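Section 5.1 Outputs to date
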Amino acid sequence: MCSGRVDIEFVFRALADGTDGVYVGGCHLGDCHYNTQGNYDALKMTLLSKRIMKHLGLNPQRLRIEWTSAGEGIRFAEVMNDFGGKVRELGPLGQSEGLDKETLALKLKAVTKLIPYIRVVQNERLRVKFGTEEEYHQFYSSDEFEKLFNTLIADKINMSQIMLLLGEKPLSTGEIGNILGLTASEVSRQLNNSATHGLAGYEPSQQRFSLAR
C-alpha cells in the first residue's frame, strides 16, 4: 500500500486502541511507485499528526516516518530497532506524559470524533506543495502554520474535549481546566462559545456547567 494512503485516522485510532508508537514507512521521496506525491502526502499527514499529539500532551516522538526502499532491508531493520527502543524508553502511552488512562482516552476520543473535519482543513486550508522535505518541515514549524493550527484545529479539539467531559457530569471552569491542562481563560472562552450556540449552560445551583438539554 502506498504510504500516501495512510490516513490521519489510522494514527489516532491506533493510539486510541492502546498502541504506544506508530511507524509509517514509505519509499524515498521522488521515488513513489504509485503517485508521485504519495509519500509527500504521508509526510504532511505525519507532521500534522505530530502537532496534534503535542497539543494533546503526547510525545510526538511516538510517531515516526522514514523512507526505505524494498532493497534496504538492513536499514529498515535498523530503523525499526531504533524506533522500538525509543518507544520502550517512553513506556506505555500516556505514562511518561503524566496522563491517566481516563484523560488519555478522552483526549484521543475528542480527536477521532473530529477526523472528518481535520481532513477538510488538511485538504483545503493546509494544502501546500513544496519540492523538498526540508520545506515541509519549515512550513509545519512556521508561525503561519501555528496560527492556522490554533485557529482551525486546536480550538475545535479543546471544544470537543470539553463537550465530552460535560457529557459525563456537570463541571466548573476550574475542574475542566485541571483535567485538560487548559487555562481558566481558555476554558471560559470555550464555554461562552458553547453557551452561545446552545450546546452548554450554567447551572447556578451547582455552580457548574453542563450540556444543554
